[in-house]
Write a structure and sequence with these properties.
This protein is α/β, with parallel strands linked by helices. The chain contains 15 helices and 11 strands. The chain is 46% helix and 17% strand.
């Protein structure tokens, strides 16, 4: 199993600090370095910067990846160009993860000026086109959402970039098995990882593929602090936006995205109680204080550094790429991030 490190903008670090932490990741034994993508800094450039930092420490640098880029911000050709360039410049050390993001939400589509569409169809079109482009093929594809006729990526040789699909639900996981090089999971208990592999295998059979050829990666959040309550609150705040959603969901909205994912894992009652608090006007701090510890313990780790590595290993069961997604109890400080990196260091866990 590959153990990677995941850094994101919530850590509040400067570019110089991230550059040094990327080099430190090599010294601590991490095998890959990952970033998510929002609407801030371009994650393809961030990946290249982090790879370049690791290349100063170990020849060839660490593998770097994005998990994941919401596809609404780029065309399939733009993804292939950006990802293919990073792959070419890093000597093939890049994994490109793509996902539907909020494409299933009408309010998100309105921001982008997009019509109503199937997120599943959207991702099928993007996967087919991007993978053909990065493999040097001439693309003639007439999808429901995306079309491309007679186009080829002008990078030689072809930057054969692995494309992972961000997937949570059964249909998207099956699509990952059918068409992608890997599935990028998120916020999963070990039992959910096993269930996800079953759905991936079902998709692989549809296209005559060996399920073991589809890699499975996941961000596993880790927050360490001697003050366990401070770590708990920091992790709860990192979890809330995913598990609860931006607003109290309707019955229909509960069947989509991360809310549906957490409910599939059996947390419907706990989340409904938090929704009641939100309807009564509870603040984010109050919601974080009330956030159930059993949810946090099922999908992540908070607490003292001494226990972090063992819990990370437990949560990593069944993965090919297990990524320590740093949650800092002291954002804006290098120490808050470095403490997590050291606690889960592959070198330390072996020692």
């Amino acid at each position: 199993m590959d153990i990677g490190i995941g850094l994101d903008p919530t850590l509040g670090l400067s570019l110089e600090e991230q550059f040094e932490l990327s080099r430190e990741a090599v010294r601590l034994g991490y095998q890959s370095i990952w970033t998510p993508e929002g609407t801030g800094q371009d994650s393809y450039q961030m990946c290249l910067m982090r790879w370049a930092a690791t290349n100063q420490v170990v020849e060839g640098g660490l593998e770097t990846g994005i998990a994941v880029s919401p596809v609404m911000w780029r065309t399939p050709a733009a993804f292939a160009m950006a990802g293919g360039t990073v792959s070419q410049m890093s000597g093939g050390k890049f994994i490109m993860g793509i996902g539907a993001g909020g494409a299933y939400r009408p309010d998100v589509r309105k921001v982008m000026g997009l019509p109503k569409m199937s997120a599943l169809t959207l991702m099928r079109d993007y996967l087919v086109i991007i993978r053909q482009l990065v493999n040097g093929e001439k693309v003639n594809y007439d999808g429901e959402v995306s079309k491309l006729r007679g186009a080829r990526l002008a990078i030689r040789p072809a930057p054969k970039t692995p494309v992972y699909l961000g997937a949570l639900g059964p249909k998207m996981l099956s699509l990952a098995g059918e068409l992608s090089d890997g599935a990028a999971l998120n916020w999963c208990a070990p039992e959910q990882v096993a269930w996800s592999r079953e759905k991936i295998a079902e998709g692989a059979k549809l296209s005559g593929r060996d399920p073991s050829d589809i890699k499975v990666s996941e961000y596993i959040r880790v927050c360490v602090d001697e003050d366990e309550d401070r770590a708990r609150i920091a992790l709860a705040k990192a979890t809330m936006g995913y598990a609860l959603g931006p607003t109290v969901p309707t019955e229909k909205e509960r069947s989509f995205g991360y809310r549906a994912h957490f409910e599939r894992m059996g947390f419907s009652d706990e989340l409904s109680k938090l929704d009641e608090l939100r309807l009564k006007g509870a603040s984010n701090d109050e919601i974080a204080e009330a956030f159930p510890e059993n949810i946090l313990r099922s999908v992540a780790y908070f607490g003292k550094a001494d226990n972090a590595s063992a819990e990370f290993q437990r949560l990593s069961e069944g993965l090919d790429n297990a990524i320590v997604r740093v949650v800092s109890s002291r954002p804006g400080t290098v120490e808050g991030t470095l403490e997590v990196m050291k606690a889960c260091s592959p070198i330390s866990s072996k020692g």
